[in-house]
Amino acid sequence: MAEKLQLDKMPYFAPYVVSWLQKGQQMLVNEKCQVEFQISQYKEKVLCDIMQMDTYHVLLGRLWQYDRRVNYDGSIMEG
């Protein structure tokens, strides 16, 4: 996705390994990029790790949710 969207890639100065994406496999994460997205009226720019995947997703984890005090109330947003 980063290549297709022509996002500027930045190197990690301290690359790390993830093993939670695929059981028994480890993946080196050595690049990141800034991604801008919008959900309804909410706009955000986040730094995303770049990893090889069969499908393309932006995964927003608990740290992002905590930093922005995300609160899910179960209702559907009207827009």
Write up what this structure looks like.
The protein has about 80 residues and is mainly β. The protein is built from one helix and three strands. The protein has one helix at about 60-65, and strands at about 10-20, 25-40, 40-50. It has a three-stranded antiparallel sheet, with no helix packed on it. The model has no long low-confidence stretch (mean pLDDT about 80).
- Measured distance between first and last alpha carbons: 27 Å
Secondary-structure-based class equals mainly beta
Question: If you average the pLDDT, what whole number results?
Answer: 81
Spatial strand sequence of the major β-sheet = 1-2-3
The whole-angstrom Rg is: 15 Å
Task: Report the count of strand segments.
Answer: 3
Task: Tell me the layout of helices and strands.
Elements: E1 9-18, E2 27-39, E3 42-49, H1 62-67
Antiparallel strand pairs: 1-2, 2-3
Quick description:
The chain has about 80 residues and is mainly β.
What brief labels describe this structure?
79 residues; mainly beta; 3-stranded antiparallel beta sheet
